[in-house]
Amino acid sequence: MNDSADRQYYDLAEKIKLYGKELGFADIGISNLDLQKDKEFFEQWLNKKFNADMEYMSANKSKRTSPSELHPGTLSVITCRLNYFPANNNLENNFCNTQNGYISRYALGRDYHKVLKKKLKQLETFIRGETENLGSRFFVDSAPVLERALARKSGIGWLGKNSMLIDTNDGSFFFLGELFVNIPLPSCESETESQCGNCSACMKICPTTAIVSPYIIDSNKCISYQTIENKGSIPVEIRPLIGNRIYGCDDCQLICPWNKKTELTKEKDFLPREQFLNQSLNNLFLWTEEEFLKNTEGTAIRRIGYERWIRNIAVAIGNSEKKEGTSELLKSKLGKISSMVDEHIDWAIKQQSSILPKTERLRKYLKKIGYFTF
Questions:
Q1: Which of 56, 157, 182, 373 is deepest in the core (most CB within 10 A)?
Q2: Which of 83, 93, 89, 178 has the alpha carbon at shortest distance from 140?
Q3: Which residues of 87-102 are buried (b: 16+ CB within 10 A; e: fewer)?
Q4: Contact by Cβ (8 Å): 270, 86
Q5: Residue 149: enclosing H or E segment and its boundaries?
Q6: Residues 273, 33: Cα–Cα separation, whole Å
Q7: Hey, how many other C-beta atoms are within 10 angstroms of the C-beta on 193?
Q8: What pLDDT is attached to residue 354?
């Protein structure tokens, strides 16, 4: 490739990054397709069955580690980062009050798939206007893509011990989207190594010890997996550790020192919806299926369905401080949804407890660093 062509692709890469910022992306990175190191790591993870019953992680394994196989003709991957941590998100009330349901911060607003896809489509259209014969395809957590590996290779972050991609300035509360293109764009010349150092706060705070070793998550133990991906019964030994988390878990991110000054989102679609804030577990449990579908319309939460929603809330109620009338409330849905839900309701009726020590420790830390002043 001659110098003129090199300059042309370099200029295009800069235009892409500038336009991406105009669209609201916090950062744009470009990488080549070499994922050999990540392929070996990924295969070891699969061999240990840490993907639990997420068979889609092992399916199309070759495409996941070879972008050009997933989309023939791909020469470069453009990774886009969009921050989602909202201001005024009532974190303290929902996290610390065991009578309220805690929902992972990423799911409080509009479904991120919809928001990112719209922006990626706009970016794709822009690139099409800047070059001829563009071959491209964009992805948002919807295909076999090793997105964190590609993001790391693109230079927009590094992997923390909790396996999350972390940016030195913005922390880890962001979404990733990828645009595969048939253009040989200049990629990041050097990857940023992990900046975790001796810190292991995320490993220590994890309620279920799901971070079995640095950078490795056992999904079987992960609260996010159990409350979102697991379609069946939550293991009995995991249930007491879930606390009041009814959709996902943010503990390993909230405790991370790099998130002390996390960049708040400017994306209005990610602002928390009122129906998810300061909601007691009892009120959420009373939702009918029709109310669930209405209240979760356009959000990521809807994907788990009503059955898992009630299952999760039943477990959380079982972990909350005992109050008069709780058993009657739980019994009101027995025999009305499924035998799987009944199992969790029966468990909840027999078990009610106080806030977990680890949760209390995290609460004190968050208050100390000012998370509750947003």
A1: 157
A2: 178
A3: eebbbeebbbbbbbbb
A4: yes
A5: helix 147-154
A6: 38
A7: 9
A8: 55
Residue-by-residue DSSP string for 13-65: HHHHHHHHHHTT-SEEEEE-S--HHHHHHHHHHHHTTTTTT-GGGTTTHHHHT
Query: Which pLDDT does position 241 carry in this prediction?
Result: 94
Q: What is the mean pLDDT of each run of 10 residues along the chain (374 residues)?
A: 75 96 96 93 95 90 92 97 84 81 95 96 97 94 93 95 94 97 88 88 95 97 98 96 95 94 89 91 97 97 98 96 89 97 96 70 78 58
What pLDDT score does 18 carry?
97
Torsions phi, psi for 171 (to 5 deg): 75, -140
3-state secondary structure of 165: strand
Annotated catalytic residue 342: no
* Count of residues making up the chain: 374
Phi-psi region of 100 (alpha: psi -120 to 50; beta: other; left: phi over 0): beta
Residue 174 backbone dihedrals phi, psi, to 5 degrees: -150, 160
3 state SS of 158:
strand
Query: Which of 3, 11, 141, 218 is the catalytic position?
Result: 141
296-326 residues labelled b (16+ CB within 10 A) or e (exposed) = beebbbbebebebbbbbbbbbbbbbeeeeeb
Distance CA 274, CA 267 (A): 17
Reading the block at residue 359, the tokens are 């949760």
Residue indicated by tokens 């069946």 = 232
Helix axes 112-130, 3-22, angle to 10 degrees: 140
Helix (H) or strand (E) holding 174: strand 174-181
